[in-house]
Amino acid sequence: MTRPSLALLLALLLGAITLSLRLAAAPAASATPYGRKLDVPALTEIGRALFFDPSLSASGRVACASCHDPRFAFGPPNDLAVQLAGRDGRMPGLRAGPSLRYLQTLPPFSEHFFDNDGDDSVDAGPTGGHTWDGRASSGREQARLPLLSPLEMANASAAEVAAKLRHGAQAARLKQVFGEEAMADDARAFDAALLALEVFQQSPAEFYPYSSRYDEVLRGKAQLTAQEARGLALFNDPAKGNCAACHLSQKTPDGAFPLFTDFGLIALGVPRNRTLPANADPRFFDLGLCGPLRTDFQDRPAYCGLFRTPSLRNVALRRSFFHNGQFHTLDEVLRFYARRDTHPAEFYPPGQKFDDLPPAFHGNVNTEPPFDRHVGDKPALDDAEIAAIVAFLQTLTDADLRR
Ligand code: HEC
Ligand code: HEC
C-alpha cells in the first residue's frame, strides 16, 4: 500500500484539530462553534485560498505560494538562493525556501529521536520540527513565522493579519466555520487562519501523491533504466554515495513508502554563500540548530551547523540547493558530496575549509562516507557515478509535476 497509515494520519490530524480547537477556545466561548465537529473539506478550501492570497502580506504582493509554488512541489519557482519579500517586496531572506510536499509525517522536534519503524533502541539524535532548524513544532506554528517575519509577509502583528482576514475574500467562510465571535478576536482569528493553512497542507493529492516513477517501481508497475538502477545502487551503497543513510530510500517495515529523509539534523559543512546579503557581515553565521534564528539552543556548541535533512522527492525541480541555496544544479551538489574532503579547494577559499562555520564548530561536521576521505584520496564517486545518481534523483518527481 502506498499510504498504509492514512487512517492513522487522519486520526492524528483530527486529534490535532480537536486539540487545537480546545486550546483556541477561550474559557467563556462554549457557545461558539468550536465545540462543533470541524469540516475538514471547508478548512482545506479556506486554507488553499489563504495560501494563494497576496493580500495577507504587508506589501500586498507576497503569498505563501510566491515562495512555495505548486508547480515546483511547493518550492521556489526560480533559482534565487533566497527569495525577496518583506514590506517592500524586496527584502532578501536568509534561507532557501523548502518544498512543502511530503511533510505529512514530519515529527515534532526532539533532541533524542527513537524511530519506531526501525531499531527503536538507537538514539538518532536531534530530529524533526518544521524549518531547516526544526524550530516550529507544527504546520500551524510554522505558518505564524512567515506571516509575521519582516523578511517575508511582514505583518506587524496577529491583529494586522486578523484585520485582513475580516475584510478578505475568506471572511464569510471563516465566520461560518469558526463563528462570528472567534473572528472578532484577533488572536483567535489569526489562529483560525493558521489552522486552515495547516489543514490545507495535509491534502493528500496536493501534498503527498506518491506518484513518482520510483513509486511506480516500488508498486511493481514500472522499471528503472539501467543508468537509474545503477544510480539507486550507488545511492544506497554505504561505501559509495551512502545517501540512503540519511535520505531513506526503501519502504519501511510496515510498508510505508520512503520519504527520502530521516528528518535528522546534521552538519554537512556547506560552503558559505557569499551572495547572501546577510553574509556580507563576516561576523554573521547561520548556525542552524544553535541559532541565531532558533534561540533555545544558543548555548549548545555541539548543535552549531546542524540543519534538517530535506526530502529528496521532487528535488530535480529545485534550482537552489541546501539551506543557503549555495548550489544550483544537482551535479554541483553531488560533486560536493563526492569531493568535499578530497578536493576542498573546489568549494572553499584556500585554507578555509568549512568557511560557513567558526573553527570551534568544525568538529560537528559529518565525516561518514562519502565524507570519510582526505586530500589525495580518490573521490567516493566519479563523474559517471554522479551522473547515474542524478538520473536516479530525476525519477523522484511526482507525475503532476513532470514536464
Ligand atoms: C518570502 C518567501 C516565503 C514566503 C512568503 C513563505 N515562506 Fe514558507 N518558507 C520559506 C523559507 C525560506 C523557509 C525556511 C525557513 C527556515 O528554515 O527558517 C520556509 C519554510 C516553510 C515551512 C517549513 C517546511 C519544512 O520543511 O519544515 C512551511 C510549512 C512553510 N514555509 C509554509 C509557509 C506558509 C503556509 C506560508 C504562508 C503563510 C509561507 N510558508 C510563506 C519561504 C517563504
Ligand atoms: C549524513 C547524512 C546525509 C547523507 C549521507 C547525505 N545527505 Fe544529502 N542532505 C543531508 C542534509 C543534512 C542536507 C541539508 C544540509 C544543509 O542544507 O546544510 C542534505 C541536502 C541534500 C540535498 C539538497 C536538497 C535541497 O532541497 O536543497 C541533496 C540534493 C542531497 N542532500 C542529496 C544527497 C545525495 C545524492 C547523497 C549521497 C551522495 C546525500 N545527500 C547524502 C544529509 C545527508
TrEMBL record:
Chief place where the protein resides: other
Sequence segments annotated as region (Disordered): 114-140
Domain of life: Bacteria
GO function term, MF aspect, one: peroxidase activity
Gene3D superfamilies xrefs: Cytochrome c-like domain (1.10.760.10)
Glycoprotein keyword on record: no
Name of the protein described by the UniProt record: Cytochrome c peroxidase
Organism listed in the record: Ideonella azotifigens
